[in-house]
Write a structure and sequence with these properties.
Elements (H helix, E strand, L loop, with lengths): L1 H10 L2 H18 L2 H11 L4 H29 L1 H21 L4 H10 L1 H4 L2 H9 L7 H9 L4 H16 L3 H6 L1 H14 L12 H8 L2 H32 L3 H17 L1 H11 L1 H19 L5 H29 L4 H30 L3 H28 L23
Helix pairs in contact: 2-8, 2-9, 2-10, 2-12, 3-4, 3-10, 3-14, 3-15, 4-5, 4-6, 4-8, 4-14, 4-19, 5-6, 5-8, 5-12, 8-9, 8-19, 9-16, 9-18, 10-15, 14-15, 14-18, 14-19, 14-20, 15-18, 16-17, 16-18, 17-18, 17-20, 19-20
């Protein structure tokens, strides 16, 4: 075990890996900040359930669109410069939200622009992943991707800061400080990998999207990452509406659930390296589907928190499992695929709050929404079971490593189910 640890830490560039994590962590904190604040903001700008859902979904939509832009920039100018540009542009919605919002419509614009921070995914993961060999991709991408733990900072502190200062706007202003600090650290310590692939043309995007596997990964990530970020942004509203909790207490319970998804992402990548990404995803899709189905029964608060904790754990670990597989199949197009798959994950995250908000407004209950979410996870499981039969014969021919076999097995042409 010690040798394995040494081989991982010596096989890449640790300062770049940690810089990628910090960049993603602070960006993610900003990206989802409006989710926990939504209940507080509603006191100033009264909203119906669908308007609340729209407010917390818009940053996810913005991130989904802009990830394609940052993904292309990562290919052309490198992940480091792309990350620096991303952090500077993130200051724009923070300043506007702090000083210039006077209406709900203006707040929608700020929410959409917060997607700049969400697009950090397309630079942070290639910055980390391009330094590491395929056998360590799952863990490297998992560590960098654990920056989604920035969600915890938002859910834990955003409403407390707003309550302390009597203003939700000050939260936007104070968020400028950690972004500025990480910008300095990132500038000093991050380095582009010398193994960066050549820039991709628009025709390369079309070429990748003509491959069915790219769409499969998009769907899987729309379920795992979309489920995680969508619930992260919406659960404060859910706990407030369903269980009558205050803004701070609702965000605290959201924090408990978010911690599971955030900190199990690296474990998902690590275990996928050991037992295979497909085997891992099979377990996780099944677990997420079951937990969300049980949540649909609207059990008592303590039970629903435990169920959401387990469900978010499955979704977070699933993020790591998906990105253990992506470099295996699309190693030479990692930056491009990170943007495409990340965008799909963002679209899933946008759809989730809209679905829950719309069905709650129509029925007065969250049960139909969570039944639908459970069904989506179980459909992803069925697709995974079916598609792996084709992957057994096509992955090796496409130039990938074993689709789901442990990296140490040495069977580069076989797929463990």
């Amino acid at each position: 075990m010690e040798n394995a640890k040494k081989s991982f830490w010596k096989s890449g560039h640790t300062p770049s890996l940690l810089s990628a994590f910090l960049y993603f962590d602070m960006s993610f904190m900003v990206w989802v900040m409006i989710g926990p604040l939504a209940v507080v903001i509603a006191a100033d700008y009264p909203m119906d359930p669908l308007q609340k859902a729209q407010l917390v979904a818009l940053p996810i939509l913005g991130g989904s669109i802009l990830r394609l832009v940052l993904g292309a920039l990562t290919d052309y100018i490198g992940p480091k410069l792309t990350g620096q540009i991303g952090m500077l542009l993130t200051l724009v919605p923070l300043v506007i939200g702090w000083q210039f919002v006077q209406s709900l419509e203006q707040l929608y614009v700020v929410a959409l622009l917060l997607g700049i921070a969400g697009a950090s995914f397309a630079a942070a993961l290639p910055l980390a992943g391009q330094w590491y060999p395929k056998e360590h991709q799952g863990l490297a991408m998992g560590i960098a991707g654990a920056g989604n733990s920035g969600t915890v900072l938002s859910t834990l502190f955003a409403n407390r800061i707003a309550q302390h200062f009597g203003s939700w706007e000050i939260v936007f202003g104070l968020a400028i400080i950690p972004i500025a600090v990480v910008f300095v650290i990132f500038t000093l310590f991050a380095r582009n990998s010398p193994n960066r692939p050549a820039p991709k043309k628009l025709s390369h995007y079309a070429s990748v999207l003509r491959q069915g596997d790219a769409w499969v990964f998009c769907l899987f990530y729309a379920v795992t990452f979309g489920g995680f970020v969508g619930l992260s942004n919406y659960l404060t509203i859910f706990f407030n509406a369903q269980y009558g909790l205050s803004a701070v207490r609702a965000a605290d319970f959201t924090t408990i659930c978010v911690i599971a998804g955030s900190f199990f992402r690296p474990l998902g990548g690590f275990l996928s390296d050991r037992i295979g990404g497909i085997r891992m995803l099979t377990i996780l899709f099944g677990g997420a589907g079951l937990m969300l189905a049980l949540v649909a029964s609207m059990p008592p608060l303590a039970a629903v928190v435990l169920l959401l904790f387990a469900g978010m754990m499955c979704l977070g670990a699933g993020n790591g499992a998906v990105f253990q597989l992506v470099p295996q199949r699309f190693g030479s197009e990692l930056g491009l695929m990170t943007g495409i798959v990340g965008a799909a994950g963002g679209l899933g995250g946008y759809a989730l709050p809209m679905l829950l908000g719309k069905l709650y407004q129509m029925t007065g209950s969250y049960t139909p929404g969570f039944v639908c979410l459970s069904g989506v996870a179980l459909l992803a499981l069925v697709l995974l079971v079916v598609i792996q039969l084709r992957w057994r014969t096509t992955w090796a021919a496409a130039g990938g490593l074993a689709a789901a076999a442990p990296a140490s097995s040495g069977n580069s042409g076989q797929l463990n189910s």
